[in-house]
From TrEMBL:
<keyword id="KW-0547">Nucleotide-binding</keyword>
<dbReference type="InterPro" id="IPR019591">
    <property type="entry name" value="Mrp/NBP35_ATP-bd"/>
</dbReference>
<dbReference type="Pfam" id="PF10609">
    <property type="entry name" value="ParA"/>
</dbReference>
<keyword id="KW-0411">Iron-sulfur</keyword>
<keyword id="KW-0067">ATP-binding</keyword>
<dbReference type="InterPro" id="IPR033756">
    <property type="entry name" value="YlxH/NBP35"/>
</dbReference>
<dbReference type="InterPro" id="IPR027417">
    <property type="entry name" value="P-loop_NTPase"/>
</dbReference>
<comment type="similarity">
    <text>Belongs to the Mrp/NBP35 ATP-binding proteins family.</text>
</comment>
<keyword id="KW-0408">Iron</keyword>
<dbReference type="GO" id="GO:0005524">
    <property type="term" value="F:ATP binding"/>
</dbReference>
<protein>
    <recommendedName>
        <fullName>Iron-sulfur cluster carrier protein</fullName>
    </recommendedName>
</protein>
<comment type="function">
    <text>Binds and transfers iron-sulfur (Fe-S) clusters to target apoproteins. Can hydrolyze ATP.</text>
</comment>
<dbReference type="InterPro" id="IPR044304">
    <property type="entry name" value="NUBPL-like"/>
</dbReference>
<keyword id="KW-0479">Metal-binding</keyword>
<comment type="subunit">
    <text>Homodimer.</text>
</comment>
<keyword id="KW-0378">Hydrolase</keyword>
<feature type="binding site">
    <location>
        <begin position="84"/>
        <end position="91"/>
    </location>
    <ligand>
        <name>ATP</name>
    </ligand>
</feature>
Length: 324
């Protein structure tokens, strides 16, 4: 049988450019075809493979086609949101940061790795959603805020305590981070508080591009925040800066700002370490009620949205030199 003509093979694949690489034919007429299926869904991939194979099979001398489908692996960057202590508002900040980054035009996903208290499904208004897996890979849940997400809380029944030990916890983290994050450039990862197994697994296996640390102004919270910063710094994960949450109490009646937890501590600590204070979020009833209702303030139009937009801009600007 005649060896397939390379020009005719190339012509047959022309309609599939730029997804089809130039085919190679062996002497027995078997053609190897490489197709780039990035961004296509299952049906799109199948159609492309079927049509390209059919086009090649029509070329004289072709006895068979072996297709290899490749998806361009986007370089996703992880931004870890950590805190030293629990309850400082880390999850609230992570959700609003992700939404504000998306509003600024970034392609952002959100991973809730807070195994011991996953609160992102509630914050993002996605409590009833359950992710499905395809080829053993989880598909992120879309949210109405343009930020797809996955949470430990979506993998178990609501309200069920996650009494996982280290290896199980880091295995679950892997499933969330290595999910099918198609079209996503940034993954904001809400870590559990402290410096435990999940943080170590995050640093060792998933190499965040950067970390931001959330603290309240109290001294105790700051001491723990410093510990969290040290963990990232030791592992050479750049810490972009500190976000001070519950920085002053915004009185809903008169609008006055007071400072029951102290003032200026986080800024001073950040400055001591040569780090920027990326933003300051007051203790604000509107933030709590909006968050609890699954309508993060960053998605709204109020002053809180502007505040989170400023923090997102600071984070994106700090990442700019690290984009490579
Ligand atoms: N700036 C704020 N103003 C008012 N309420 C806030 C603010 N930040 C967080 N909260 C509220 O504080 C509570 C704890 O916040 P959140 O769950 O984000 O903390 P966390 O640090 O992630 O906690 P954990 O470590 O337990 O997961 C929530 O009810 C949240 O709505």
């Amino acid at each position: 049988m005649a060896h397939p003509d390379p020009d005719r093979l190339a012509a047959a694949l022309a309609p599939f450019a730029p997804r089809a690489a130039p085919p190679r034919a062996a002497a027995d007429g078997l053609v190897s075809l490489i197709l780039d299926v990035s961004g296509l869904d299952e049906a799109g991939r199948a159609a492309l493979e079927r049509d390209a194979k059919a086009a090649l099979m029509a070329v004289p001398g072709v006895t068979g086609v072996r297709a290899l489908l490749t998806a361009e692996r986007r370089e996703r960057r992880l931004i870890a949101v950590g805190s030293g202590k629990g309850g400082v508002g880390k999850s609230t900040i992570a959700a609003n940061l992700a939404i504000a980054m998306a509003r600024a035009g970034a392609r952002v996903g959100l991973v809730d790795a807070d195994i011991y208290g996953p609160s992102q499904p509630r914050l993002m208004g996605a409590e009833d959603a359950r992710p499905v897996a395809e080829d053993k890979q989880l598909i992120p849940i879309p949210t109405r805020y343009g930020v797809p997400m996955l949470s430990m809380g979506q993998l178990v029944a609501p309200g069920k305590a996650l009494a996982w030990r280290g290896p199980m916890a880091s295995g679950a983290l892997g499933q969330l981070v290595d999910a099918r994050w198609e079209g996503i450039d940034w993954l904001v990862v809400d870590l559990p508080p402290g410096t435990g197994d999940v943080q170590l697994s995050m640093i060792q296996k998933h190499r965040p591009a950067a970390a931001v640390i959330v603290s309240t102004p109290q001294d105790v919270a700051l001491i723990d925040a410093v510990r969290a910063m040290d963990l990232f710094a030791t592992a050479q994960v750049p810490v972009l800066g500190l976000i001070e949450n519950m920085a002053g109490y915004l009185c809903p009646a008169c609008g006055a700002l007071s400072h029951p937890f102290g003032h200026g501590g986080a800024e001073a600590e950040a400055a001591r370490r040569g780090l920027p204070l990326l933003g300051r979020v007051p203790l604000d009833l509107a933030i709590r009620t909006a968050s609890d209702a699954g309508t993060p303030p960053a998605a709204g139009e109020g002053p809180e949205a502007a505040l989170f937009a400023g923090i997102a801009a600071a984070v994106l600007a700090a990442m700019e030199p690290k984009r490579g």
